[in-house]
Write a structure and sequence with these properties.
Layout (H helix, E strand, L loop, with lengths): L4 E2 L10 H4 L59 E6 L16 H5 L7 E7 L4 E6 L2 E8 L2 E6 L13 H13 L6 H4 L2 E8 L2 E6 L27 H14 L7 E7 L3 E6 L18 E6 L3 H10 L4 E2 L7 H6 L3 E17 L4 H4 L2 H9 L3 H8 L4 E3 L23 H10 L6 E7 L3 H15 L3 E7 L2 H10 L4 E7 L8 H4 L13 H11 L4 H18 L2 E14 L2 E2 L2 E3 L2 E3 L4 E2 L2
Parallel strand pairs: 2-11, 2-12, 15-16, 15-17
Antiparallel strand pairs: 1-5, 3-4, 5-6, 6-8, 7-8, 9-10, 10-11, 12-18, 13-17, 13-18, 14-18, 19-22, 20-21
């Protein structure tokens, strides 16, 4: 059987959605600046690499043009970059971190085997690229072989090799307290072929397996496949990994003040050179600060005391755009999907399809997106699918805004005089305002929804217990729809609507096993049709993530929705 070989920067086969799906109707164009694409797909065994198909032209200009390559002579070394996040981690151990893991993912201390890097800002096109693995091969549907980079060392001087990579991945899968089990739970065995070759034997075919070896998991917040030193673990245990892990990245974590800051300094043994031929990093240091209030982050960015952040408020986007010292980058492919769901075990909603359909048709998604999006939102018509994701296609049926139809369905459902219900959500403005607008829209057709606003822990406890009638929440989703199993399947870890249809479970599982991009897209369209017919979960709007940097920041890379500071420098 012929093997498929990929070297570090060569993209796995990419097939544009426009080339394999029905034409998008002109009545529903893609958002401004977006050419619908799908992420790089794992090729079928024996399939040769091909260049991506040409993207369908779009008349609208890109929201933000990609920066021109910087000549090597202009790269400047030195300086300290100030990074800010609203999210702190509870541990720097990538396997045991249970809180948010943004600092681990975005600060260049630890590295993954592969990257999923933005290569075209205009279209949102991403490529799988090598990092600690130089190349990868899909030998057959259940076998992946990784060729590891030679000469890589951890910050403690120990060698990175196949044995250490195997130990890291097995620890993520088998540790009883691992927060990253699902990233590698589909791997039956990790086999060391030689010191620089690692073979993964999957339990079943999975197009998701390779993406899980990156840190760009699209909002799941899991970084469990990042590599840490086994020598450090053997001598210092998990406490050492949790406070000052020895990674392979260009910087060392020298100090961590929990809930305040992480201080990073260069490591002189990094394996990669910059464009000037000298080892990375370019910077003299990074200070990663935890600032809980996004408005404070924005104020400090304007003042020049914060250089880069992915956590400024949407309400500050227009001000950032107008500031000559700032550059906000709109990640139109990194969507935050706002949805609502009916408890199918609550008889009022679970037993009345027409009532659920009436609620779906009563939502004016365009008006809602305009009201809450600050120019960073579009209607959400396909729940957790958006442009760029396999299966996203505007020919798939969805619920349009139709007030007359909604009123007629209310009568057909047996509620000509309306119905009372309770809508559970969260008190933060991000959630409360959309919930209030949804409440007002439903009231026009006689659905009288009382808002119940609870903090996230209390609300999710009620959701897990099924103690709710209707809920409104959101999720940050990857372009790779295999992750959606967490939102849609009966036992999904992030299925906050408690939606359960065994046929959808079966459909989602089938799609994940398919390596052919076009075939996967068709299967996901079938899954969406089932979800549409159930009318148990629907969308309101989807907002776009942003990353904001000061004008002096150069060389910033983006992995899906996260910052990559590996090659960043300051033009000061």
């Amino acid at each position: 059987m012929r093997m498929i070989k990929r070297s570090g920067v060569v993209v796995l086969i990419t097939i544009l959605l426009a080339a394999c799906a029905p034409a998008v109707p002109t009545a529903a164009p893609a958002p401004t600046g977006i050419v619908p694409t799908v992420p790089a797909a794992v090729p079928r065994p024996g399939e040769q690499a091909t260049k991506p198909a040409a993207a369908a032209p779009t008349a609208a200009p890109a929201a933000t043009a990609p920066a021109a390559p910087t000549p090597a002579a202009k790269v400047k070394r030195g300086g300290t970059l100030n990074y800010a996040s609203t999210f702190e981690t509870d541990s720097w151990d990538p396997v045991l971190a249970k809180a948010t893991t943004w600092p681990i993912r975005e600060l260049p201390v630890l590295e993954t085997l592969l990257d999923y890097v933005l290569v075209d800002e205009a279209s949102g096109k991403h490529e799988l690229q090598g990092r600690l693995a130089e190349s990868w091969e899909v030998v057959d549907p259940t076998t992946i072989v990784l060729k590891l980079r030679k000469g890589v060392k951890f910050h403690d001087g120990s060698d990175f090799n196949a044995e250490v990579a195997k130990w890291n991945l097995e620890r993520a899968r088998d540790h009883p307290k691992s927060a990253a089990k699902r990233l590698v739970s589909g791997v039956q065995t990790f086999e060391v072929v030689d010191p620089l070759t690692l073979r993964l034997k999957l339990k079943q075919p999975s197009a998701l397996a390779i993406y899980n070896l990156t840190s760009a998991t699209g909002g799941t917040g899991e970084v469990g496949t990042m590599m840490v030193s086994k020598k450090q673990f053997d001598t210092g245990g998990e406490d050492a990994l949790g406070t000052k892990p020895a990674g392979t990245g260009p910087m060392v974590l020298t100090e961590w003040r929990r809930d305040d800051r992480a201080i990073l300094k260069p490591w002189n043994g990094y394996w990669k050179n910059g464009v000037d031929g000298k080892p990375l990093p370019y910077l003299d240091g990074i200070v990663g600060r935890i600032i809980n209030d996004p408005t404070v982050i924005f104020a400090e960015m304007r003042a020049g005391t914060v250089d880069v952040s992915s956590h400024i408020s949407d309400s500050d986007y227009q001000s950032a755009k107008a500031n000559p010292n700032l550059k906000p980058i709109v990640l139109r492919w990194a969507n935050n999907f706002h949805v609502f769901g009916f408890n199918q075990k609550f008889p009022l909603w679970g037993d009345n399809l027409k009532l659920r359909q009436a609620a779906m048709y009563a939502v004016d998604r365009k008006s809602l997106a305009d009201a809450v999006g600050f120019g960073l939102a579009d209607p959400n018509e396909y729940v957790f699918w958006g442009p760029g994701s396999p299966g996203y296609d505007t020919s798939v049926p969805h619920y349009e805004f139709n007030l007359d139809k909604a009123k007629q369905l209310m009568k057909d459902a047996g509620y000509p005089d309306g119905v009372d219900t309770v809508l559970l959500s969260y008190p933060q403005p991000l959630f409360q305002k959309p919930a209030e607008i949804l409440q007002a829209m439903w009231a026009k057709v006689g659905i009288r929804a009382k808002l119940e606003l609870l903090e996230i822990v209390a609300a999710r406890n009620k959701l897990k217990l099924g103690d709710f009638e209707v809920t409104a929440h959101r999720a940050v989703i990857s372009l790779e729809p295999s992750y959606l199993a967490r939102m849609f399947t009966c036992e999904g870890a992030a299925n906050w609507s408690n939606y359960c249809n065994p046929e959808v479970d079966k459909c989602m599982a089938e799609a994940e096993k398919i390596y052919d991009t076009a075939q996967r897209a068709d299967t996901y369209k079938r899954c969406q049709k089932l979800i549409y017919e159930d009318a148990l979960i629907g969308g309101t709007h989807r907002t776009f993530s942003t990353i904001t940097e000061r004008k002096e920041v150069r060389g910033l890379k983006i992995q899906y929705g996260a910052i990559d500071l590996q090659e960043t420098w300051l033009d000061k």
